[in-house]
């Protein structure tokens, strides 16, 4: 009898209650870093214990988790740097239930372009260049469409921004472009641009395999103040400059109004082991260790079955998640997603 009692108590402790709402799931979360569930075991646990997103074991994405930035690049941003906050929006314009920059500015092709940062912790530069490209298109009402160079920011911002392929501060990428400008870019080996991305993708993508170092990141590329051969334009003449930049308040409506007015924004969040297995749905951290920080491009929001979410462009190729995008819980600063959102305008 005593054995049965002990077993019953152990089983109750080790089993999670069935989850039906976001509130129930968040109430069950713990911050126990001793949790060692990874790989397929973690995916099985995630799919069993919540209905909000689908997870699938993805070795490529799991490898990318080893090349995330340190969480200091989010948590220290407001502490270490005096940053100009966005001016408070006084508009009474209604915020719609759903908003998608891909639809609102459907003539801006850069918004749908999903980048691949490869085996380099360059998400801060990649998502900055991606957001900036969209902003130029939105600001000029589609008249000026360009893809800005993530490699130019990654390689030339140097210690001012952070540590290259080991991570960097999102808002300092914008400040650097405000001071020195950024040239045109594109995917690896792209012709007709000044400085395309320095690294090819890793692994198998759309039937083609790319080999990468398995035990370390790529080294930060050298800063080259000149365009690739055959481009036909001088480096100095190819630059675009930020006019103003700011960090938004940790406020859902402030972020929404900024996006409605000026387009996509850059965001960053704390990542956990269970994010690597994301396949589709609304991501909510369920289980797994804290792994680092990740910067992304925020393009919209919506509601599904009563659950509010942000729509986000990742930089892990277009065959990850929802065609390169993902959705994450909105309005509760989940994974600190709403705490470090950067925006700006360009000199056009």
UniProtKB/TrEMBL annotation:
In the record, which residues are listed under signal peptide? 1-16
Citing just one GO molecular function, the answer is: cysteine-type peptidase activity
Instruction: List, for all copies, the residue spans of the domain called Peptidase C1A papain C-terminal.
Output: 95-345
Q: Which InterPro entries match?
A: Papain-like_cys_pep_sf, Pept_asp_AS, Pept_cys_AS, Pept_his_AS, Peptidase_C1A, Peptidase_C1A_C
Please provide the Gene Ontology terms (biological process) for this protein: proteolysis
Its keywords, alphabetically, are: Disulfide bond, Glycoprotein, Hydrolase, Protease, Signal, Thiol protease, Zymogen
Superkingdom to which the source organism belongs: Eukaryota
Matching entries from Pfam families are given as: Peptidase_C1 (PF00112)
- What Gene3D superfamilies does this protein's entry cite? Cysteine proteinases
Q: Which family does it belong to?
A: Belongs to the peptidase C1 family.
Q: What does this protein do?
A: Expression of the protease correlates with blood-feeding and suggests a role for the protease in blood digestion.
What name has this protein been given in UniProt?
Pept_C1 domain-containing protein
The scientific name of the source species is Haemonchus contortus (Barber pole worm)
